[in-house]
Write a structure and sequence with these properties.
The complex is a heterodimer of chains A (746) and B (152). By secondary structure, chain A is an alpha+beta fold. Chain A is 29% helix and 23% strand. Chain A folds into three domains: 33-105 and 140-228, 2-Layer Sandwich (Aldehyde Oxidoreductase, domain 4), CATH 3.30.365.10; 246-317 and 376-452, Aldehyde Oxidoreductase, domain 4, CATH 3.30.365; 323-368 and 464-741, Aldehyde Oxidoreductase, domain 4 (2-Layer Sandwich), CATH 3.30.365.10. In chain B, the strands form two sheets. In chain B, strands 4-3-5 form a three-stranded antiparallel sheet. The radius of gyration of chain B is 15 Å and the shape is globular. In chain B, 58% of the residues are buried. Classes of the chains: A alpha+beta (746), B alpha+beta (152). Chains A and B meet through helix 8, helix 10 and helix 20 of A and helix 1, helix 3, helix 4, helix 5 and helix 6 of B.
């Protein structure tokens, strides 16, 4: 235990979250549960058995307090509860529920400890366990980091089991039968004589019984729902146009607004003239908001037309004005002064790098926007000291805090309604759009106002995937890397996001070396160093975070080294991999793609591997060099999620994640012209379309040690697998994204 | 101005150059068609005008000269259109925001071409963006819907 004590005595560093005093503080307080937020929101006849289960005479509701932004979590979380509660998914209502600390995410910090994700030794696991303490005090109801499934896996099933227990006890009282003689089935308690009592009839009685804190769970062999593909609970509403997204919020007497914010991000308004706007049809009011203006009108289009007519003089950009200058800042950051972390330093790379035959390669990745299909929007209604907000968001407790900062209303009194998100990818973890909507509502007190951004505002006021450069040096011996030195420079997404969000932000930024320092390779001399570039454009989490660029750097480099040494890139990797689940995903794509088999001239295959968010993922991409350019013809992916709760949904997430990575690698970049973002809409920030989408085969393995989430792991290997395939097909090596800047695509 | 939407006639009093999308969404409360880009580059706003897929975000309401059908008029949760049934069968939607537009585009394609090839699907569907990239399942669902329509 000496090592734990030593780490705990120092500042307890979790990626970027520094918790002073470490594990010693307030453990007793950690053990106190947060109250059940449903208790003071129940209507007559409703009973809340746990924060996740509500029973009324007309039905059962399961609370799934994570953002449904496409990843299928409402279905999987509800299935966890339904499995133990013994109800069918189609027989219950499923709601996101309110913002509450009770719904904090205890898994989101687990992999922020400075231990390899493949290290399941006592020290590493103990430290991961301790992260639950600061996670609870930070109390973030956050959806991100592919953490929903591991966070919910035990607690959601326990919630279902606890609710079932009190329902059975209530039935025992009602029927005068011993609990042990009662069974449950499909929302009913069944007595030995066949008498069936519906859960809905037991609600009030059950609510008076204290639920067990730690009920037993069904063994995996007994699962009815988990482990099997479920029809998504949101599918029918999403294909009939009846699913409520934030932008669909409609309230009586509502007004509509849009914003026009300084195109120089972070700077304010010098002066403005709204006289033309105020004379336009439907326009009600122009209000000043942070760094810009909002136009309130009787419909969104009148508001948008009004916003275009505003005459505004903006304050200048607080950052370098061209993309070249931003890259120059990154390139200038490989210095001792800006060294941020060196989480991996095995063997001794220095003397080998000082010798001969060193390969040196540099890779680059641009800023990227999330480009969710649903532009940023939120509806806010401020009246009589009360505030309701409707916003698709990835962090309701944070949304509440931002709204509190604007209005002075205590956060706990603000009601956050979280409808479906038309895409998140990390963008809706930022709360600027909630803040602006509340500022608008404050300017129109008494009236609900929906503030919808134009696509142009959305594109040009992002929090972007960091710009970055990777420099890799290597020395080969006998067809395998003897020394690998990886240097990564990027602005810090975690520190930047956390400091905006009022969270403790100190220490090294875990996003910079993410999915690089923590890879399971066993190169004998292996060093990964992160350099923090001063923030220029605001940056944040973008699907797979550091993995989105670092896998491209490292996995491209390994491919280059293998080709230069004349060895098969997969065989080379397997020589330096002992982690069983990682080897197995690679072996799976070898088999799926028939790796090594002959391909026609002008065709090529590339492979990449990445262990991100605890999930080993291998992908093979096949391309054809056609007259019209490169065409991605086929993709294969193998992932290991430990326990696969919903194979159909996991397949969908891997396909979507892989394509999200391909789309960015081929097409996407955010660049600056005189300080303004140049990519204003989908005509110049295009994304993958039907004709570019390959067919994809997915294999799901369950050899890994822990259950994992799958929203992000499919993304990191896509770019390097594609770059490696293009090299195989054409001999052209791509070291900078997006690739369409350098080669044509069909 | 008079507008026929999903078989119902509505009287609207708006500027004639207002895009049909915003009339549907903000004036008439048909929120199935979605706002994505405002420049006909993403297809989230797709509706039918006399059965033909049209981007409602760039069509001025004063220029509408036929019957408008939105996703709400194609089918309902209880009585789904064959294309919607195929979408459910293949579990296509992820975030789901683009899917009303995808489905309106696909049903228009199938009306014009009951047995589309993969190339036909590429041509017809490439104006509809999906950031979740559900394309493989969209393609499969269109083929399924085509087969079901042939049986029907």
């Amino acid at each position: 235990m000496g090592r734990i004590a030593k780490i705990a005595r120092r500042t307890f560093l979790l990626g970027s979250v520094a918790v002073i005093g470490g594990v010693a503080f307030g453990y007793w307080k950690y053990k106190q549960p947060y109250g059940n937020p449903l208790d003071d929101r129940l209507t007559d006849g409703e009973a809340s058995l746990t924060p996740y289960v509500k029973v009324a005479s007309d039905g059962i509701t399961i609370i799934t307090p994570r953002a449904e932004m496409g990843q299928g979590v409402h279905t999987t979380l509800a299935a966890m509860v339904a499995e133990e509660l013994d109800v069918e998914l189609n027989a219950v209502k499923i709601e996101h529920g309110p913002a509450s600390y009770a719904y904090y995410n205890e898994a989101v910090l687990e992999e922020a400890v400075p231990f390899l994700p493949t290290d399941h030794g006592m020290v590493a696991e103990t430290m991961r366990g301790f992260t639950k303490v600061p996670a609870k005090f930070l109390a973030l109801q956050i959806t991100g980091g592919s953490s929903t499934t591991p966070d919910g896996f035990v607690k959601m099933r326990k919630a279902g089991a606890a609710a079932r227990t009190v329902l059975v006890q209530a039935a025992a009282q009602k029927l005068g039968v011993s609990e042990s003689n009662l069974k449950t089935e499909n929302g009913h308690v069944i007595a030995p004589d066949g008498t069936k009592v519906a859960y809905t009839e037991l609600a009030t009685l059950a609510a008076s019984i204290e639920p067990p804190a730690d009920p037993d769970l069904q063994p995996q062999s007994e699962w009815r729902l988990l482990g099997k593909s479920q029809p998504r609970v949101d599918m029918v509403s999403k294909v009939t146009g009846t699913a409520p997204f934030g932008v669909d919020t409609q309230l009586d007497d509502m007004l509509y607004a849009t914003v026009r914010v300084n195109p120089y991000l972070g700077a304010g308004v010098r002066s403005y003239d709204a006289s033309e706007t105020l004379g336009m049809r439907g326009v009600k009011k122009v209000v000043e908001v942070t760094n810009g203006l909002a136009v309130i009108a009787t419909n969104t289009w009148y508001a948008m037309e009004g916003a275009k007519a505003l005459e505004v003089e903006w304050k200048p950009a607080p950052y370098p004005l061209t993309t070249d200058e931003h890259f120059a800042q990154v390139a200038a950051s490989f210095t001792d002064e800006r060294q941020d972390s060196q989480n991996r330093n095995e063997g001794d790379v220095e003397p080998l790098l000082a010798g001969g035959n060193v390969t040196e390669i540099e890779y680059r990745a641009p800023y990227l926007a999330h480009a969710t299909m649903e532009p940023m929007n939120a509806t806010a209604w401020l009246r009589d000291g009360k505030l309701d907000i409707w916003a698709g968001n990835q962090n309701p407790t944070l949304a509440r805090q931002f709204a509190s900062n604007v209005t002075g209303i205590p956060a706990e009194e603000i009601e956050i309604h979280t409808p479906y998100l038309g895409g998140g990818f990390g963008r809706r973890g930022e709360m600027d759009y909630v803040q602006l909507a509340v500022e608008v509502a404050k300017g129109m007190e008494g009236t609900p106002v929906k503030t919808t951004w134009s696509r142009e505002e959305d594109q040009c006021h992002g929090f972007y995937r960091p710009i970055s450069i990777g420099r890799i040096k290597a020395v080969m011996e006998d067809g395998a890397p003897k020394a690998i030195d990886i240097q990564l420079a990027a602005p810090g997404a975690i520190i930047d996001a956390f400091s905006r969000q009022g969270l403790p932000a100190a220490g090294p930024d875990g996003s910079i070396p993410m999915a690089a320092w923590d890879q399971p390779y066993t190169f004998p001399n292996y060093r990964v160093t992160a350099y923090k570039v001063p923030t220029m454009l605001p940056v944040t989490f973008w699907r797979s975070v550091g993995g989105s660029q670092n896998a491209f750097f490292q996995e491209s480099a390994l491919d280059e080294l293998a080709h230069a040494a004349g060895v098969d890139p997969i065989e080379m990797r397997l020589k330096s991999l002992t982690h069983g689940p990682s080897r197995k995903v690679i072996e799976a794509v070898v088999e799926m793609s028939n790796w090594g088999s002959a391909m026609p001239v002008g065709h090529g295959r590339g492979m990449a591997f990445c262990l991100a968010f605890g999930v080993p993922t291998a992908e093979v991409i096949e391309v054809a060099n056609t007259e019209d350019g490169i065409k991605v013809t086929k993709a294969f992916a193998a992932v290991d999620v430990g326990v696969a709760l919903d194979p159909g949904n996991i397949e969908a997430q891997v396909m979507g994640g892989l394509n999200y990575g391909l789309s960015a690698a081929i097409l996407s970049q955010i660049t600056l012209d005189n300080g303004e973002v140049e990519q204003t809409n989908f005509h110049n920030y295009d994304a993958m379309r039907m004709y570019q989408a390959p067919s994809i085969e997915v294999k799901i393995l369950e050899n890994a040690e822990k259950i994992r989430g799958i929203g992000e792991p499919g993304t990191p290997p896509a770019a390097p697998a594609l770059a490696n395939a293009i090299f195989a097909a054409t001999g052209t090596r791509l070291r900078e994204m997006p690739f369409s800047n350098f080669v044509d695509f069909a | 101005m008079r507008l026929n939407v999903n078989g119902q006639t509505h009287e609207v009093d708006v500027q004639e150059d207002m895009p049909l999308l915003w009339v549907l969404r903000d004036e008439l409360n048909y929120t199935g068609p979605k706002f994505g880009c405002g420049i006909a580059m993403c297809g989230a706003c797709t509706v039918h005008i006399d059965g033909v897929a049209t981007r409602s975000c760039t069509l001025q309401v004063g220029d509408v000269d036929g019957e408008v059908t939105t996703i709400e008029g194609l089918g309902t949760p209880d009585v789904q259109h064959i294309v919607q049934q195929a979408w459910v069968e293949h579990q296509v939607a992820q975030c789901g925001y683009c899917q009303p537009g995808q489905i309106m585009q696909a049903s228009s394609l199938l009306d014009a071409n009951p047995e589309p090839t993969d190339d036909d699907i590429d041509v017809a569907m490439s104006g509809n963006l999906c950031r979740c990239a559900t394309y493989p399942r969209i393609r499969a669902a269109i083929h399924t819907a085509a087969a079901k329509m042939k049986e029907a």
